């Protein structure tokens, strides 16, 4: 079974101070830590798990700057067999990224193509389904379980309200992987050092027959922080006093 996994190097912002660039179109990233997108990490682990069970090969692909090699090296340390880094376009949107991936994969024979459900930095959640459309492959999103059958796969995908949907897809297929589909595997320092000796194939946009002048479908006009609302007011006193205070506040809100 041949599996391709699309991965992305993202800035980790959950516990960091965030500042917006002067042009208002991006955040400042020079002080941030970068790592593999969380959803993509689960996708790599699932691909390696399937290869360990059914045999085959796992190829990881990333579109990004030279620093993306660090993420690809980590994927190789996690068990991937091959790695490809594609030159990053000067501007990008989900459709553009999907077209670049399509140009890389269209002439290769893969049984499965994985992406994460979404990326931590932009959260579009569109690359996997757009890629499936371009390739003409069936797809499933937000997948939490995969079972390989004869010429097809059985998957479970999350729906709203804790409901799960069970689907069967003919291979080849595209699947977007949800976090929690598997148990993350600890990657040792020795495995990372060993992976640094493995080849990472480098491709330019010209080499894959892709024009850097491809029109952008989505552009960011302005980034801004959400407005800060009023602080909560703590009502003090006995239960009766608190109730009276609350009644007065409600009367004022309704104009008496």
Describe the structure in your own words.
This protein has 256 residues and is an alpha/beta fold. It has one domain (2-203): Rossmann fold (3-Layer(aba) Sandwich). It is 27% helix and 25% strand. It has six helices and eleven strands. The strands form two sheets. The protein has a nine-stranded mixed β-sheet, with helices on both faces. A hairpin with a 5-residue loop joins strand 8 and strand 9. The longest helix is centred in the N-terminal third of the chain and has 17 residues, at 38-54. It is globular. The termini are far apart.
In short:
By secondary structure, this protein is of the alpha/beta class. The protein has 6 helices and 11 strands. The chain has one domain: HUPs (Rossmann fold), CATH 3.40.50.620.
Keywords for this structure?
Rossmann fold; two-stranded antiparallel ribbon; 256 residues; 11 strands
Q: How do the strands of the widest beta sheet line up side by side?
A: 9-8-7-10-6-1-4-5-11
Distance between the termini: 71 Å
Q: Give the CATH H-level superfamily.
A: HUPs
Number of β-strand runs:
11
Order of SSEs: EEEHEHEHEHEEEEHEH
């Amino acid at each position: 079974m041949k599996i391709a996994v699309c991965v992305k190097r993202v800035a980790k912002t959950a516990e960091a101070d965030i500042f917006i660039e002067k042009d208002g179109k991006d955040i400042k990233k020079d002080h941030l830590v970068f790592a593999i997108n969380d959803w993509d990490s689960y996708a790599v682990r699932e691909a390696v798990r399937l290869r360990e069970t059914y045999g085959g090969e796992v190829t990881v692909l990333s579109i990004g700057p030279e620093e993306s090699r660090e993420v690809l090296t980590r994927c190789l340390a996690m068990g991937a067999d091959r790695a490809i880094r594609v030159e990053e376009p000067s501007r990008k949107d989900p459709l553009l990224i999907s077209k670049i991936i399509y140009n890389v994969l269209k002439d290769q024979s893969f049984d499965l193509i994985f992406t994460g459900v979404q990326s931590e930095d932009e959260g579009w959640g569109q690359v996997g389904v757009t890629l499936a459309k371009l390739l003409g492959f069936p797809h499933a999103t937000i997948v939490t379980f995969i079972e390989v059958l004869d010429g097809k796969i059985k998957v479970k995908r999350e729906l709203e309200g804790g409901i799960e949907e069970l689907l069967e897809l003919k291979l080849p297929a595209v699947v977007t992987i949800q976090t929690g589909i598997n148990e993350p595997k600890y990657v040792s320092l020795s495995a990372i050092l060993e992976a640094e000796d493995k080849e990472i194939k480098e491709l330019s946009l010209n080499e894959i027959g892709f024009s850097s002048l491809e029109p952008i479908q989505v552009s960011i006009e302005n980034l801004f922080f959400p407005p800060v609302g009023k602080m909560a007011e703590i009502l003090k006193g006995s239960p009766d006093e608190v109730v009276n205070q609350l009644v007065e506040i409600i009367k004022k809100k309704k104009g008496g």
